[in-house]
Specification:
6-stranded antiparallel sheet, globular
Length: 182
């Protein structure tokens, strides 16, 4: 599913729940160029198109974890940069403490890599990441940083797959994802 279709279906879900999905203004070229400069690896067009449609979400939840009931907000470009820098600084602390994480052959070892682009976050510190430089997985796969316990796990093979899984999760578990708003 592409992002425009996802947003249309998410708007329908919100409407069915008597809620309004509020999108932010699109990200500008200057913001996206700044993000590209920070990440230093070419960002896939499908990810850029998300921010060109809406620079983050005004509504919550915007994404749903496909395997757990974790609602995510869609980060603005500036929030994505901050999350990226936060992952980078957190990794130094984890490595200094000798913290290890579970190994998945699709994901590079370690707690941070230049090709990891955060795009969604749960208030508890869980982050969805577009993996631009996977170990043996697919470029553009979606991985997740989970907090408590701290780990980095595989979520979906691509952004379109995540959008399919996210919408299915939000629709199937509406009572839990939207409980604070119904």
């Amino acid at each position: 599913m592409n992002f425009d279709t996802y947003v249309s279906r998410l708007q329908r879900l919100y409407s069915d729940l008597n809620l309004e999905l509020e999108l932010a203004a699109p990200a500008g070229d200057r913001e996206l160029e700044k993000l590209q400069a920070v990440v230093e690896i070419e960002i896939p067009d499908d990810m850029i198109q998300c921010w060109k449609r809406s620079n983050g979400s005004e509504s919550y939840p915007f994404f749903g974890h496909p395997h757990l009931v974790i609602p995510y907000e869609f980060l603005t470009v500036n929030q994505a940069i901050s999350a990226y820098q936060g992952l980078e600084s957190r990794a130094v602390n984890y490595e200094a403490l000798g913290l290890e994480r579970a190994s998945d052959p699709r994901i590079k070892d370690g707690w941070f890599h230049r090709g990891w682009l955060p795009f969604a976050e749960f208030v508890g510190g869980d982050i969805l990441i577009c993996d631009l430089a996977p170990e043996s997985g697919k470029r553009g796969q979606v991985i997740g940083f989970s907090h408590d316990p701290d780990d980095i796990v595989f979520i979906a093979a691509s952004l379109p797959e995540l959008l399919d899984l996210s919408l299915a999760a939000l629709e199937e578990e509406q009572d839990q994802f939207f409980e604070d708003y119904l």
